[in-house]
Amino acid sequence: MAILAHGRISEIGLERRDRRRSRVDRIYLAWLGGAAVSVCLVVFGIIGYIVYQGAPAISWQFLSSPPIEGMSGGGIWPMIRGSLLLMAGTMVLSLPLGILAGICLAEYADQRPVLRLMRACVTTLAGTPPIIYGLFGLAIFVLMFKFGVSLLAGWCTLTLFALPVIILSTETGIRQVPQTFIDGGLALGLTPWQTMRRIILPNAMSSILTGVVLAVSRAAGEATPILFTAGIYYYTGELQLNVQTAFAPVANLPYHLAEGYRQGTAIPEKIIWGTCLVLMLFILCLNLAAILLRTRARRRQQW
Fold it and tell me: Which of 57, 147, 190, 225 could form a disulfide with 185 if both were Cys (CB 3.0 to 4.6 A apart)?
C-alpha cells in the first residue's frame, strides 16, 4: 500500500509539473507571437504609408523624364539611371574581390595569425557606420587619388562598403560545405584549386549569391557613402556612356531623396514621396532577387 501511495503521489507531482510547464510555454508563445505581430504591423504600416503617399506621383512620365523647373516638376529618370550605374559598377568591382578574400579566410585564416586579424577587421568593418566610408572615400579617392566627385569615386567607396558582407557570406558558405565532399575530391586526385572550383564553390553558391545581392541592395539605399564622393542633386542632361562618364558626378535616388527633404518646401512633397517609393521598390526587388537566387542554388546542392 505504501508503495502504491508513493507512486500515486509521484504521478500527481509529475502532472502538476507538466501543467506548469505547459502554462509557461503558452505564456512564452503568446509573448513571442505578440512581439512578432507588433514588428510586422510596424513594418507593414511604414510600407503602406509610403505607398499611400507616393503612389499618386508614380507614372511613366515620372519614371522616364528628367526634372524640370528646379525640381518642381518632371521626373526622376536621371536618378534611377545613376543608381543603376552605381550598383552595376559596385557589383563588378566587389564580386571578385569579395569572393577571393572569403576563400582566403575560409581556407587559411585558422593557420595564420595575420589572416585571423584580417577576419576581425572585416567583421568590424561590416558594422562601421556608412558616414565613415563616405569620409574615407572623400579623403582617399576624391582628394588623394584626384578622382574628384565622380562615378568612379562612388564605385570605389561603395565597393569598400559592400566588401565585408560579401567576404563574410563567402567564408560562411565555404565552411558549411561538408568536409567529406572535400576529402572525396582530394582522394579522387583533384588539386586543391580544382576541389575549390568544382566542389566547394558550387555548393557554397547560395550563401555567396545571397551575400552579394544583399550587400549591393544595402549599398543601393545608402546616401552617406556617396554624399561626398559621387552625388549630384540636380541633373537634367543626357548621360553619355563613355570613359568621361566615370569621372563625372552622377545623380542617384538616395542622395536625391535626402537632399529633397533638406530643401524643404522648395520641392513638391509629391515628388519626394514618389522618389521614396521608387527607392523602396528598387531595394525590395534586389532583396527578392536574393531570395530567389538562394532558393534556386539550394535546390542544386548535393546535400
Answer: 190
Which sequence spans correspond to the domains of the chain?
Answer: 1-56, 58-300
111: left (phi over 0), alpha (psi -120 to 50) or beta: alpha
Q: Are 294 and 206 in contact (CB under 8 A)?
A: yes
Q: How far apart are CA 200 and CA 299, in angstroms?
A: 16
- What is the CATH topology of the domain spanning 58-300? MetI-like fold (1.10.3720)
**Is a pLDDT exceeding 70 seen at residue 73?**
yes
Residue 9 has pLDDT above 60, yes or no: no
The pLDDT > 90 percentage for the chain reads: 29
